[in-house]
Every structure is written in C-alpha cells, then in structure tokens.
C-alpha cells in the first residue's frame, strides 16, 4: 500500500521540478500544500475516496487524482514527465543558499550545470560570473554554501538539538547587556528532527554579543559575522544562526522566526484581510497603496501575545503552528463556543505527568535496580511506577524467561513495603511476535499487574500484515498498552506502516492505550498519530522507556510531541491520579 510519506515526497518533488522549469507560483504552492495535507493525514491517503480527498484543505481534484494514481501505479505520470526534463542533480543545486529557481535554470541551460560537481567546475572556470547579478561576493557566498552542504550534517534529532540550544541560550543569556534571548525555529515547535538552530536575542550591545557568539570554543567555523546576524558551524556539525532584534520588536520577530513558514503565511493572510501588514518587525496598519509606510509604528510587536490578540486570536503554542487549522481553533471565542455548557478542554502539559509506565531494571537491559528506579520516580513526584523488563524473545536485551519473571514479580511487589507512598506494579514489555502472538502465555500475562506489548522485530512487514499483527495485541484482553506501535527510529528506520485508523478504532473499542514513547530516538506515536488517536477517543500513555536515570528527562520530548498532537490531559493515562489510574488498570484484570 502507498504510504503517506511516499506520496508527500512525490508532491514535494513535483514542486521543486516545477520551480526549475518555470511553472507559475500558484502551481508550485499547490503541490507543496498537497504534500503538507497528505503528511497530516492519520489514515492512508490512497485509501480515501477521491471525493473525500477533495474536501481536505490543501487538496483539490487534480492532486486527489494524483494520489489515487500513485496508489494504483506507484508513481505519478506528471512527475515522471518532469523528471525526464530535469537533470536529477539540479535539486541539490537549488538547495544551495542564494540559488533560486531562475538562477538554477540559467546555470543549467546556459552553463551546463547539472549538479554540485559541475557547479563547482563552472565557478572555478569563471562561467558563473558571467550570469546577471553574480558578483564576487555572491560567488564567494555560493562557494561557502556549497562547502557547507557537502560537510555539514543533516537534520538532527530533537533530543540532540535541544540540549545544545539550552546550553547556548543560558551561556549567551548570562552576558551583560542581553535583554532577552530564546531559541526559535523548528526546535521551538518541537519537531522530531531539526535542521539549523535559530537563536533570537535583544541586546544593548549587539556587537559584543556577536563577538562572544562567534568566539565560543564549540565553533568550528564562522560562516557569517554581521551586526544583526551571525552564523557558525559547530564542531558537532550543526549550523547555528544568531539574530539580534530590537527589544520592542522581539515578539513579532520570535513569532516570525519560530514559523512554521506555512503558519506565517496564514497569519499574513489574516492580517491582510483586516487591512494590516505583518512581518518580523511587527503588525502595521497598511498605507494607502497597501504597503507599510516608512517610519510606521507597529500596533503590536513587543510580545507574541499582543500580536495574536491584535489579529483576534488567542496565543497559539509554538507546537501548534504547523498550518493544521490552528487559526480557526484559537480564534477568540472559538474554543468556548465548541464546549458551550461544559468546561473547556485543557491540553496536556509537562507538569501533568505523574506516572512512568514503561521502564527497565538490571533484570533485563536497564542500569538501575528496582529500588533505584522507584526512588527516582518518587523524587520526581510521581505516584505510580510500572517495572516492565523485556520478555524472553529479547535475548540480546537479557529478556526474562518465565522462571526469572515470576521471581522478578515477587521482588517488585516486595518493594512496596520499602516505598509505601508509591504505587508499584510488576509488569513486562512483552514482544508482539511477527504473527501477532505474544511472547508469554496467557497464564503468565495474568500474573502481571501491567502489560506493555511492543513490536521489536520484523519491522519491515507489509502494511496489511503489520496491521493484523498489531490488532491481535490491541484486542488481547490482558494487554494494557501497545508500546512504540510502529517501532520507528528517528533518522534510523521508518518502522511499521500499519493502517493507523484501524488501530485507533480497535484501541478505543477494547480499552487499550497506545504509547507515545518519549525517547527522542523513538517519539512513537508521531505527532499526527497522537492527534488522530485523540480525535478517535483513545487513551495515550506517555512513557520514557527508562533504562537509565537520565532517561526520565526524555519526558519533555514526549510532551512536546503530545502538544503537537493537541492531546487533551483527560486522555493521557500518566496524568490520571493514582486511584483513577489503578481503576483503569484493573479493567484488564478480571
């Protein structure tokens, strides 16, 4: 079955190739909107009728037809036609900073540039200098951008980027004269992978801040050093951009550089509809000819809240700024009208989590004893901990056979006397085998307080087999949670691609929770899955998959992903109080 990721990639490629061939901007943008729409779907786009696809924001008759064409043939005829017209390497040329579609087209048709290698040859031969607006400075920047493209790392995981950004913001924020500082971009939005780090600051002495930034010991190379913007490449291969803005414009700039690009477009459209203009400097009243007059004073700029308020919106959390209908959802009064006569739905926050329901001790592949892991959970203010060491099929993780498991259950229960304030459950992370059966027999499962069933092997199964496999575990009467349901590793492997809509329906019907595994290498369920599962009425367990004490800190990444999925606090198992959580657990233990 065609996956949404494959279809979205085709639309993105259609957009790039169309740009190179000089298509009008409306057609290019239509392809990009279609890619975003497909990425945001919880169900497989190719299985949705054309008539229903056409009703989805971002799709139309033409793009809906292309989706079904790809589902039937594995390709799109228009995409194949464009591929035949454009050298494949031009896509990487277009990705170089400073090279737009018109320039890439000119390089190709006039200079014979077909990839980065031929671009470098054309530069060295002086041919690029013959093109319009290609002076020495432009060519120097182009060389630098090519070198960076060839040497810099690709997108890094959220859990790698955020500690870097936290440390940098703390270090620079401690300098005298720094008035405000924050990270922006896709990191602030909680994306599972990050390209560059974007840091925004207001400072009384911008030059001193820029000097300190460029001279940090972590800097491998300074890519650019200016009065208001500097860029560096760190020794770990991450590009970091620092921008300095006026303090009274910080909110507008933070909104702009947080993005996403598509959210910003929607915001600008909303401003224009109200006779206003929005940019990184603020929200302005437009002049007589629809422009921002020179010297105009913004009506809102200092904080994000005041900019949103001036446009008739409640403040939109950065994690929700992905052009997935958030402007309608956060319009003033919209949420209240949807819940008329009832209390407003509250979204999950980090402070709501009070239980860890998936962790491993030294009995399998963890580094802590039972007492150490329970003590750490207690220190963090949790009321419940579930010890879930691996089952026997995970031999490489020292999985427990039935004899060791029964002894382990007794040891976990014995810890209750030493920690009377904690609710401690003896559980297991039980393998879902390739045929959907579980790694322990039912009588063994029944002896456990808590069962997390997870796929670890055969993670390239065909979607139908993967769906049937997971459905067997979801419908099993003794399973509480499906752990990291797709088994994906961020930047590592895609994992299973089951029909998620069927899993949501079964999970709701059988009272089985789906896990959002917080570890930054997993983040599985993904954000779009969380949103669709929540809409379907499922319960979500947000767990850290703890193996070592620092793994408890992974919780922030799971909660960010839950925020991106707009998960209500009432649908998070880990946010229930101890009594309610135990009552939910007992439903699976007749």
Explain how this protein is built:
The chain is of the alpha/beta class and 590 residues long. 42% of the residues lie in helices and 14% in strands. The chain has a seven-stranded parallel beta sheet. The relative contact order is 0.08. About 1% of the residues have low confidence.
Q: Briefly, what is this?
A:
Helix content is 42%, strand content 14%. The chain is α/β, with parallel strands linked by helices and 590 residues long.
Summarize this structure as a short list of keywords or feature phrases.
alpha/beta, 7-stranded parallel β-sheet, 590 residues, Beta Polymerase, domain 3, Beta Polymerase, domain 2
Q: What does the overall shape look like?
A: globular
CATH superfamily of the largest domain: Metal-dependent hydrolases
The whole-angstrom Rg is: 26 Å
Discrete helix count: 25
Poorly predicted runs: 337-343
What is the CATH architecture assignment of the largest domain? Alpha-Beta Barrel
**Main sheet overview:** 7 strands, parallel
Question: How would you state the average pLDDT, rounded?
Answer: 92
Question: What is the rounded distance between the termini?
Answer: 39 Å
Strand residue content: 5-15%
- For this structure, the CATH topology of the largest domain is TIM Barrel
Topology:
Elements: H1 4-20, H2 25-39, H3 50-53, H4 61-73, H5 77-85, H6 90-94, H7 101-111, H8 116-124, H9 136-151, E1 156-157, H10 158-173, E2 178-183, H11 185-188, E3 193-194, E4 197-203, H12 206-214, E5 219-225, E6 229-234, E7 239-244, H13 250-258, H14 261-273, E8 276-279, E9 282-285, H15 304-310, H16 326-329, H17 334-338, E10 355-359, H18 370-379, E11 384-390, H19 402-418, E12 423-431, H20 442-446, E13 450-454, H21 463-474, E14 481-482, H22 500-510, E15 513-517, H23 527-535, E16 540-543, H24 555-564, H25 578-586
Parallel strand pairs: 4-7, 10-11, 11-12, 12-13, 13-14, 14-15, 15-16
Antiparallel strand pairs: 1-3, 2-4, 5-6, 6-7, 8-9
């Amino acid at each position: 079955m065609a996956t949404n990721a494959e279809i979205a990639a085709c639309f993105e490629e259609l957009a790039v190739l169309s740009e190179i061939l000089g298509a009008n901007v409306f057609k290019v943008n239509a392809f990009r909107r279609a890619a975003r729409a497909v990425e945001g779907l919880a169900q497989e786009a190719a299985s949705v009728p054309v008539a229903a696809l056409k009703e989805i924001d971002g799709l139309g008759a033409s793009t809906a037809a292309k989706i079904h064409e790809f589902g039937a043939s594995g390709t799109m005829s228009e995409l194949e036609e464009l591929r035949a017209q454009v050298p494949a390497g031009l896509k990487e040329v277009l990705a170089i900073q400073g090279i737009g579609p018109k320039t890439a087209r000119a390089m190709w048709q006039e200079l014979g540039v077909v990839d980065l290698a031929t671009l470098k040859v054309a530069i060295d031969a002086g041919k690029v200098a013959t093109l319009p607006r290609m002076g020495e400075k432009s060519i120097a920047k182009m060389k630098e951008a090519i070198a960076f493209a060839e040497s810099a790392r690709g997108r890094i995981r959220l859990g790698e980027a955020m500690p870097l950004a936290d440390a940098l913001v703390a270090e620079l924020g401690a300098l005298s004269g720094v008035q405000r500082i924050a990270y922006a971009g896709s990191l602030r939005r909680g994306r599972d992978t990050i390209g560059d780090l974007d840091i925004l600051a207001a400072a009384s002495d911008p030059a001193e801040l820029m000097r300190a930034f460029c001279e940090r010991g972590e800097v491998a190379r300074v890519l650019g050093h200016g009065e208001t913007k500097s860029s560096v490449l760190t020794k770990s291969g991450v590009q970091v951009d620092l921008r300095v803005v006026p303090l009274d414009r910080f909110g507008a700039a933070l909104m702009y550089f947080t993005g996403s690009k598509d959210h910003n477009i929607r915001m600008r459209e909303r401003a224009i509809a109200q006779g206003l203009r929005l940019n990184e400097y603020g929200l302005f009243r437009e002049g007589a000819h629809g422009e921002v007059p020179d010297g105009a004073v913004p009506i809102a700029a200092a904080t994000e809240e005041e900019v949103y308020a001036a446009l008739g919106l409640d403040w939109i959390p950065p994690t929700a700024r992905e052009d997935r209908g958030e402007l309608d959802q956060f319009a003033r009064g919209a949420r209240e009208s949807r819940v008329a006569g009832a209390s407003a739905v509250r979204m999950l926050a980090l402070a709501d989590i009070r239980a860890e329901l998936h962790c491993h001790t030294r009995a399998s592949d963890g580094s802590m004893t039972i007492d150490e892991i329970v003590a750490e959970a207690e220190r963090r203010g949790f009321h419940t901990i579930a010890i879930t060491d691996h089952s026997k099929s995970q031999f490489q993780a020292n999985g427990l056979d039935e004899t060791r498991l029964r002894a382990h259950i007794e040891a976990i229960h014995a810890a209750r006397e030493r920690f009377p304030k904690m609710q401690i459950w003896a559980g297991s992370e039980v393998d879902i085998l390739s045929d959907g059966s579980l790694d322990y027999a039912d009588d063994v499962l029944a002896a456990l307080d808590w069962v997390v069933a997870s796929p670890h092997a055969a993670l390239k199964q065909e979607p139908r087999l993967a769906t049937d496999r997971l459905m067997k575990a979801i419908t099993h009467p003794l399973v509480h949670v499906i752990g990291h349901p797709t088994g994906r590793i961020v930047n590592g492997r895609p994992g299973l691609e089951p029909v998620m809509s069927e899993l949501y329906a079964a999970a709701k019907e059988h009272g089985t929770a789906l896990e959002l595994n917080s570890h930054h290498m997993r983040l599985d369920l993904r954000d779009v899955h969380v949103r669709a599962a929540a809409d379907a009425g499922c319960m979500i367990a947000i767990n850290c998959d703890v193996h070592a004490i620092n793994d408890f800190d992974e919780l922030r990444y799971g909660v960010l992903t839950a925020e991106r999925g707009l998960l209500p606090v009432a649908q998070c198992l880990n946010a229930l109080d101890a009594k309610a959580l135990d009552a939910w657990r007992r439903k699976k233990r007749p």
